[in-house]
Amino acid sequence: MKKCKPGKSGPSVLRFKARLFRHPETAKARGSSTLLLDVPDVVSKKAHSSGMITVEGTINGHPFRATLEPNTSDGHWLPVNKAMRKGADAGVGDTVQLAILEPEPEPIMPSDLRVALTASDKAKTLWKELTPIGRTDWIRWVVSARQPETRARRIRRTVEQLSEGKRRPCCVNIYEFMMSHIPTNVSRRQEK
What we know:
Layout: E1 2-4, E2 13-19, H1 24-28, E3 35-38, H2 41-46, E4 53-59, E5 62-70, E6 76-80, H3 82-88, E7 95-101, H4 111-117, H5 121-129, H6 132-143, H7 148-163, H8 174-181
Antiparallel strand pairs: 1-2, 2-7, 3-6, 4-5, 4-7, 5-6
Helix pairs in contact: 4-7, 5-7, 6-7
């Protein structure tokens, strides 16, 4: 397993290979299309949790956001759903290449967003109720704006949407964020 740090501003990238398998119990029950892969212990330890944790990364170059689940040996496995398998062009028994962004602490809220949230009690209350990944999505959407006018508009929309009870931004592109932090000097499809 390799660990790369693409830049000072982003999380480390944990790279490894793993073989896709079907859980013995679900193999008996027809209809389950989710496969699993074992995550190396070092990745499990970086997750800072013995429970479920959401991770972002790529599988054979295909971006995903999924949940690591505790396995039977005090580690984690990654459920690989149909969309992930299709994007990775992989099936049962295939070895896939993964690049997972090391779980990072929740980003610090930008001061302009913090000030804007103080203007709305509803928005401020919902912000506190959001999961860390929900807050991270809002922050990523705001800070990814390239123009000051776009950033100001996104901050206004954030306050409006939170005030209306919306828990996720309408247009955040998590895949664009992931791909900007995972170097793509490896081919999308693994040679078979």
